[in-house]
Design a protein that fits this description.
Two copies of one chain form a homodimer. By secondary structure, chain A is α+β, with helices and mostly antiparallel strands. Helices cover 33% and strands 24% of the residues of chain A. The first copy, chain A, has ten helices and 13 strands. At the A-B interface, strand 2, strand 3, helix 2, strand 4 and strand 5 of A face strand 2, strand 3, helix 2, strand 4 and strand 5 of B.
């Protein structure tokens, strides 16, 4: 399954041997993994339902190598994929990664990239057991992850009356990226935000806590409002953020950092992804410790922000707002 | 798990809805598939050992869109990944695909690409149940496939005394590609070769026939000699092709087509990949009907071609031969 791309075979084969070494070998002894790198496919034992995802990170789209160390690039690509497993309330089983590498990409860079992948895999207890090498003109990392969950948490389970829960934080990673884009000298608050963009952590333990408690869950990768729209659509409900609850849930480094960059922290939080927080819904009485209530689920459709008595729509045109824009304008949304 | 890349969210979401339609919906009713497109991850039921692979096809590296219809590009990317499952003697369970698409890539092209993927998935009884969308400057398709096999066939099982078996044909796809590269007006023979390059078929039924018969197997994607080297290295043996047996195994369209292009058919066969034949080894008495003997496994290491009484090395420098080169030169290889 680790396989050289067409052409350049001998050096690709050498790369595979190097990658196997960099991955530390521990992956072969992980439970459930019978065969790792070195055959046409990996072999796993499995019992019970599997959850399975694939995620890609592309140079100059999902990352920029002048803002990230190669270790960070490998780390975040791996954690981003594993986050989908967290959102299903599942436990990771293993991962495979396909690396598309430019011809000039040095083994030294590759080592740093793979060591970052291995570090993430180790941290998430999700052994990286193989993959694929291909040539490309731009670097990309595509990671597929398998996990176990007896009753996977879906996007479609939200019901009117549910509380809306945030697990982890949103907006800091987007703010960190904004700080890098503007080349500001980062304050302590912005440094925290940049660190969160560089080294996201999937909420695996918290995802497991949601089992039997949440009715629906998703990981926040496209932005809080956008991912809430997925829950709303899949569940056939309206998702309503409560502005004061959401503001209260924002961490100090987000508030301070947003002020320094002259951005609206609420808009940053609603649009920000890549912190890999979890957004879930469930009965208030069953809210787990790690979850912070930030709104509720109602009959209807779409995603709204409740500001006092007004309901401001966050779907559709909100999508085209920039983070610099003022908070979303009032709209004749239905009142509760 | 089907997920929009960063930015361009609304049109990405539309694309996902379209893709779901193009995939025909049958994938949700396939056995073992509980949840397909539309959540953070797919959900599957599984019993017994799983085999798992990932494979990438990149524009201008693995394919060129002026030589392939978009349907062909989707088709061959899917079949290439499924071929690894065939090589494990396994039955496909399902596939996920990550599409990296340039910003200008039209929905019309995307439809043709996805319909090609769906056609391959249907033909190989391997439902495509989800995936990921990302932006990129170059098009690539990364496919991950899960399969079931009680006793997966590995590369490492070959033993001295085994017969070497070819299942399917080798060289025709490479010759078809050469015909396209030279822009010749293709004869009937070359048209057959081009068709094999455009629409490869994984040898799934034959792979299942190898169970309990072959000791080792690999699919031929990097070239017959190169993939034999994987078996030799993994099994700690020497693989010896018999020139006369291999020549006898070459189909008429390969012999005719090679003559038209002034290429050595044996070299084309030894170097050619992308037909997705299977190369296996096992006891002569257990050879299945679909397998043609083309050599044997001995003590030692490396890959050799037996020509009369001489053993010509096919590893190392052979790698740099062009298909135009004369047959590999004599070498003081060990005699049998």
């Amino acid at each position: 399954m680790v396989r050289a791309g067409r052409g350049g075979v001998s050096s690709e084969f050498d790369k595979i041997a190097l990658i196997e070494r960099w991955l530390t070998g521990s992956e072969k002894r992980a439970p459930g993994i019978r065969i790792g790198i070195g055959d046409d496919a990996a072999v796993l034992s499995s019992r019970g339902p599997l959850v399975w995802t694939i995620d890609a990170q592309v140079d100059n789209v999902h990352f920029r190598d002048d803002w990230l160390a190669w270790e960070d690039i490998g780390y975040r690509a791996t954690q981003a994929a594993i986050s989908d497993i967290a959102a299903m309330g599942a436990r990771p089983l293993a991962a495979l990664a396909s690396l598309a590498l430019p011809a000039h990409f040095s083994d030294a860079k590759l080592e740093r990239l793979v060591r970052g992948q291995a570090e993430a895999a180790h941290r998430s207890a999700c052994p990286l057991i193989g993959g694929n090498l291909a040539r490309a003109s731009e670097l990309s990392i595509t990671t597929t992850v398998l996990g176990h969950a007896k009753k996977p948490l879906l996007r479609s389970g939200a019901r009117p009356g549910d509380e809306l829960w945030l697990i982890g934080e949103v907006g800091a990673a987007a703010l960190g990226l904004a700080a890098l884009e503007r080349r500001v000298r980062p304050s302590r608050a912005l440094k925290s935000c940049i660190a969160r963009w560089r080294r996201p952590e999937p909420r695996l333990a918290e995802g497991l806590q949601l089992r039997g408690r949440a009715r629906a869950a998703i990981d926040v990768s496209d932005g809080l409002a956008g991912d809430a729209a997925h829950i709303a659509a899949a569940s056939g409900v309206r998702v309503l953020f409560d502005e004061s609850l959401l503001l209260a849930a924002l961490p100090p480094h987000l508030l301070e950092g947003a002020a320094e960059l002259d951005l609206d922290p609420l808009t940053v939080a609603l649009r920000g992804g890549e912190d890999y927080a979890l957004l879930a819904s469930g009965a208030a009485a069953r809210r787990p410790r790690a979850a912070v209530p930030i709104g509720r689920v109602e009959r209807g459709k779409g995603v709204y922000l409740q500001r006092g008595r007004r309901h401001l729509p966050l779907s559709g045109s909100f999508d085209h707002f920039s983070m610099r824009a003022p908070a979303p304008r009032a709209h004749a949304g239905k009142k509760k």
